[in-house]
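Recap for those who missed Tuesday's class. We walked through two folding examples back to back. For each one, the amino acid string is listed first and its predicted structure tokens come directly after. Nothing is annotated here on purpose, so try labeling regions yourself before you check the end of the notes.
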Amino acid sequence: MQNTETQNAEPPAIQGSNADWIADRAIRGLIKLCHMLPYRRRVPVMGRVVARVIAPLVGYRRRAMRNLEFIYPELDASQRRNLADRVCDNAGRTLIENYSPEDFSKHLQGTRVFGDGLPAIEQAKRDGRPVMFVTAHFGNHDAARYVLKQHGYDIGGLYRPMSNPFFNEHYVETLAHVSGKIFPQSREGIVGLRKYLSDGGMAVLFIDVSVSNGTPITFLGQPALTALSSAVFSMKSDALMIPYFAIRKSNGLDFEVLVDAPIPHSEPLQMMEEATARLEAQVNARPEQWFWVHRRWKGAVGY
């Protein structure tokens, strides 16, 4: 029999349901199988598996199609299904890329970085001025952090813990591999992020997730509840607010990173409207690269 001291020294068990545990083990197994393939085969294989098997099974494709019908009613059912499949393929590629940190980082070496925001972040680094990047679940969002790290920019940020606690345990580890310090989306995490910025750090926040206490901002022609926190953090820390996007190229493996022009400080709502418009331009140009699976228009679409 183990003594009490030994029992107390063991880490607490993760609290989750049996269904969560089974789902996590299935995902771990799929990732492990894909890792038996070379990187350039691994990424498209995971994309196809997610698009053709996992997304239809768990309802992701159906949810994406509802969102697409809401925003692009001119598309017929076959067009929506095709686009939803491409969205889910991109999601699968993103998943395995982020679970292949060494291969992904190596593959991204030499990635083109462009945009009107480049001189601004170079000057901010020289001056020790903080930068609040804003982005979205587009292309592969972490590709931009990898690439900018290779150019000497450490970028931290907030993360929203996954609803599946077993999956969240290893998901957080993939985020920590990328670049600067990450903070959980909590009161303590927000305080940590503010200090990180106040000390001259660079961080990123996502602007494409619905928040219950958000402000309605028109996105793709429809009001979507949006957090103003990115703009508020920028103003309180005197940080530059700069959108960036990692754009997947047509071969499905390579990227280019757009560092957009800074958004001038004004009222938080006005700043977030501009940030949303920048994202909207990217989504309209490449709709297959945005994660249409999100419940972005809660209350308007029957999720």
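Example two. Treat it independently of the first, because the proteins are unrelated.
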Amino acid sequence: MAIFFALRYSVFMSYKIFIDGKEGTTGLKILERFENRSDIEILPIAEDKRKDESERQKLINASDFTILCLPDDASRVSASLCTNPSTRILDASTAHRTNPDWAYGFPELDQSFRSKIETSSRVAVPGCYASGFAAIGYPLVKHGVIGADYPVVIHAVSGYSGAGKKAIALYEGENRPAALDSPRQYALTQAHKHLPEMKQICGLDYEPIFNPYVCDYFSGMTVTVSLTGRLLKKKMSAKNVWEVFAEHYDPANYKGRSMVNVVPFMGEGCLDEPFIAANTMSGRCSMEVIVYGNDDRIVVTTRFDNLGKGASGAAVQCLNIMMGIDETTGLTL
């Protein structure tokens, strides 16, 4: 009888969730993904109290889970306000992604990542570009395709929603600058804030060269890494490299359901179409890995939604894992 009531309670119980920074793009999308979920109770904060530290501290410590959707410095402050040992925190900022005391919230990378998310009270949700690169770089290093000292170069394009509310307003405003009609390369000083986690999570000796572009469409992104065959640790064809990714992301190798899908290899390293559009995963929370090129110059691209697997979708996936439920709950695959 006691077991019956315990099981019944676990099925119908709800968790108290506080979102610190719910007015930002990521926070709003997380709230949207919580719609129609009866297992979650959102702890509200009055509009005039959003920056009141004592009020936020009260809500953080009253919650089962707090999700931080704040700038880095503000996230560090909010995390420090937590004194309740039962409160578990997910941080969507960059602040804690290289902190070994925090789990890195990309469960498909390895079973050890998933296990740490399941048990940790502190989870750092990866950044959008970092997620796209880690999905490529981690398997390449782990399986000995490239050495830790490989000269990695990353090219990436993203919709403008990844730049935040001010950029969205600029892109969607009247009489906007003509420059916004064109893809715009940025992070020109090679000091992008995602670089430290790209290096650390993938086990690289050096930070990669990173060339991101923001483009005139709302959401969706691609992250691309090119490999020179003669510089690989062992001789591999494009199909051999594809086989590494197909094996690594085989859902049978991990507990739970993988949300990283390796696109079938089309033969001779060719896709069934001559283009890779960056916006076709918009609105979805899964990710594609595509291998193409030829045996001398092998190219790997990840395609996903910067607001999905690259931000709010990843946060909700991690929350679901921490709650011990189906990780896809509330997500569109």
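Answers for example two:
Residues 1-10 have pLDDT under 50 and may be disordered.
DSSP finds ten helices and 13 strands in the chain.
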